[in-house]
Amino acid sequence: MSKKSILYSVWAISILFFLFSQTEKTFAKEPTVTLGIDYLEQSNFAVLDGKRVGLLTHPAGRNGNGESTVDVFVRSKKVNLVALFGPEHGIYGDEKASVPVDDKIDIKTGLPVFSLYGKFRKPTSKMLADIDSLVIDLQDVGVRCYTYISCMRYAMEACFEGGVEVVVLDRPNPLGGMKVAGPPMDEACMSYVGAFQVPFVHGMTIGEIALWSKKVAGVLKTKETYRKKGKLVIVPMLGWTRQMTWPQTGLSWYPTSPNIPTLDAVAGYPMTGLGAQMGKFKHGIGTKHPFRFLTYEGKSAEDIKAALEQLKIPGLAFKIKTLQLSDGKKKDGVYIVIDDWNAWRPTDLPFFMMQLSALWQIPSPFGAASESEIMLFNKHVGSQAWWDALLKDGGRVDAQKFLTSWNSDSERFKSLVKPYLLY
To answer: What is the pTM of this model?
Structure first.
């Protein structure tokens, strides 16, 4: 079967979008998906020819063979790499969450590394002065509050304003392209942990988000003249479909941040992150099961399991586990099992966790929260209405009513962004 290529152009955007079909791979270890970085190399880096290149990436920015994009660029005689840019956690992923990162000189390449999670979140004109094209190669996890898509948005805005081309190397959404769920983002709650008005689980690739934000007025927070004149190139994947789970891609998973070391943690992140933000629930950070191992101060593992099973959350089962902690102590908790991927709705559980927190803890952790805690909570959740209901109804809040309403919102969002989906 042959490859087909279509040049896909939208207004001032230059986008290479290639449709690809092939026979099924015989060996499970051989990738069935060609990543954007691999396609860029296969095309002999044509879109970067003659340009001074900056690269925004992190440790998960690797090709299908596991080689870092930094190394791919450095060894290529076709790429004039002049600067590196790092997101949250830094270019090598060794910085803690929410901790500012300083600019530095990269020991491996001798190139300047500009931090986009330090003094500046948006590239300055000085950072971009010697660059013709900024390449973005970031592995996202498909969740709105994960800051790599925010980093991309700010970088796109700065580049469009400064006349610098943006090249996005596309990568799979590890939750697939079919899961869209959770509260939409209230405009008043927008921040670096919610830079796009999308559902909490958005179902798009990073390239699709870039295309949508470039095409649609008001998504990027910059002048319309900059948005329209800005140049965006998407280097697509080949062979990826929206129905694919990560194992079906044949690609290895590389940690995208210290607390997302595995695919189990990727799936756990939207399931428990919000639910453990306030109150006494803990979600396994610091154990071998981050975002998948639940405990609650003052409640036994049996109590937690019984309460969660009573909720009959689609697609989930709960198993009591005992973990050996780093200090030698043992801890009982509840491990979250996804036993039906198709039935699983990734954002149901955290809102039931909040409902239980309000029921189990007196006074309610939500009613006793400080202004700064409330602000941070709403920035992550994105829904003021949910917060108001927690305060008013406490443990009697009807989480299912909100989830049903948000599912309808998600269906509308899918229709809204359909013209900008590349796969």
So the answer is: 0.91
The residues spanned by each domain of the chain are 4-170+205-242, 263-415
**pLDDT value of position 5:** 35
- What is the Rg, in whole angstroms, of the alpha carbon atoms belonging to the chain? 22
Residue 162 burial (CB count, 10 A)? 17
Residues 6+ apart with CB under 8 A from 58: 86, 87, 89, 90, 91, 92, 93, 138, 139, 148, 256
* Three-state secondary structure of the chain: CCCEEEEEEECCEEEEEEECCCCCCCCCCCCCCECHHHHHHHCCCHHHCCCEEEEEECCCCECCCCCEHHHHHHHCCCCEEEEEEECCCCCCCCCCCCCCCCCEECCCCCCEEEECCCCCCCCCHHHHCCCCEEEEECCCCCECCCCHHHHHHHHHHHHHHHCCEEEEECCCCCCCCCCCECCCCCHHHCECCECCCCCCECCCCHHHHHHHHHHCCCCCCCCHHHHHHCCEEEECCECCCCCCCHHHHCCCCCCCCCCCCCHHHHHHHHHHCCCCCCCCEECCCCCCCCCCEEEECCECHHHHHHHHHHCCCCCEEEEEEEEECCCCCEEEEEEEEECCCCCCCCCHHHHHHHHHHHHHCCCCCCCCCCHHHHHHHHHHHCCHHHHHHHHHHHHHCCHHHHHHHHHHHHHHHHHHHHHHCCC
What was the pLDDT predicted at 22? 31
Please report the pLDDT score of residue 91 as a whole number: 87
Query: What class does CATH assign to 4-170+205-242?
Result: alpha beta
Q: Round to whole Å and give the CA distance between 296 and 273.
A: 14
Q: What is the mean pLDDT of each run of 10 residues along the chain (423 residues)?
A: 36 36 39 97 98 97 97 97 94 74 90 95 97 98 98 98 98 98 97 97 98 98 97 98 96 96 98 97 96 98 98 98 88 97 98 96 93 97 97 90 98 98 98
263-415 shares the fold of 4-170+205-242: no
- Tell me the C-alpha distance between 346 and 383, whole Å: 17
Query: Is 263-415 a domain of CATH 3.90.1150.140?
Result: yes
